[in-house]
Amino acid sequence: xxxTIAAQTPRQPGQPLALTRKDFVSDQExxxxxxxxxxxxxxQTQKVMPDFGYxxxxxxxxxxIGCSGRLPYYMNTFGFHSIHGRAPxxxxxxxxxxxxxxxWVITGDGDALSIGGNHVLHAMRRNVDIKLIMxxxxxxxxxxxxxxxxxxxxxxxxxxxxxxxxxxxxxxSVALAAEATFVARSVDTHTEHLQGTxxxxxxxxxxxxxxxxxxxxxxxxxxxxxFTDREVRDDRMLVLEHGQPMIFGKERDKGIRLRGLHPExxxxxxxxxxxxxxxxxxGAEDPHLAFMLxxxxxxxYPVPVGVLRNVARPTHDELLTGQVEAVRAQRGEGDLAKLxxxxxxxTVS
Length: 349
Description:
By secondary structure, this protein is of the alpha/beta class. 29% of the residues lie in helices and 17% in strands. The protein is built from 13 helices and eleven strands. The strands form two sheets. Strands 2-1-3-4-6-5-11-7 form an eight-stranded mixed β-sheet, sandwiched between helices. A three-stranded antiparallel β-sheet has the order 8-9-10. The chain is globular and about 85 Å long.
C-alpha cells in the first residue's frame, strides 16, 4: 500500500466518497505474461471498487500463491500476499477482528482447491463476509504447467505426460456443497459480464464465491475457447437471469427444461414454449437448482454463467460478535489473569 493511502483522512459520516478506477491503481508495475487473462480480471476489479462506497484504507485484498497472488500489489488498498492456500484463513481472522473492513480473497484453482481446499470449505460454510474470486485456468501457471485440481481427464501436462487420470473438481459444486451464500461464474474476456458479476459479489453480505474462467496463454492456451469465443458463445453458454426462463442461442431459440431429475436442452417451437422451460431462481434457499446448474458443462450442455445462488444468512462475524456481547452482558468483562490462574493448574518445582 502506498504512502498516499496511509496518510488519507478517513471519510466522515455522511461525507460523499468520490473515487474512480485510477484511485485503486497502485504504483507497482503489473507483471503477468502478455495476453494473460489476469489483466482483464484486475481491470474489472479496479473499475467496480468505487461503487461500494468504502474508503481505500477500509479495503483489504488477500491472496495466496500463484499467478493470481500478485493482484494485491496492483490494488491501491491494504493487502496481504499470504502463503499457499491460506488466504481464506487470514481473511476469516481479519473479519472476526475487524468486521468493518471489506475483504477480498484472490486465489487460483491450484491455490484454492488443492492445499487450500479445507480453508475454502470452512470459510464458505461459516458464511464469512468475504468476496473470494477464484481464477480458474485449469493449470498450474506459476510453477510452469502442471495439472491442477480442475484439469480435465486426459490432459497432458508436465506432471501428467500420459494424461491426467484424476477427475476434475467442479468449483461451483464445491462452493454450493459448502453452503456459500453467493455463488457465481464469469469469463475473463467477457468484460461487461465480469464487471457486473464482481459488483454483485461485492455488494453481497456473506460468503461470496466467484469462479472466473481464465486463459493461460502460455501453459493452457484456449482452455475454454470451445464455448467462450465470440463466434460460438451465444449457442454454447447460458446467461442466467433471476426470474427469467433459461433461454440461450444466437437466435434465442434454445432452452433448458427439466426431464425427470435432469436438465434437457430443447429447441423452442413445435410444441415447446417458454412456459416449458426452467425459470432461474438464484434466491432459492434450497440449493438443488443451483447445484444442477453447477454440473452443466459443454458439450453436453451450454455452460451457465452469472449468479447461481444468492441468499441471505447471518454472517460469521455477526454471530461471533453476538456471542461475545451476550457473554459480557451475562458475566461482565473478562479477566485474563484470573482465567490463566483458574482451572486445572499446578506448579512444577
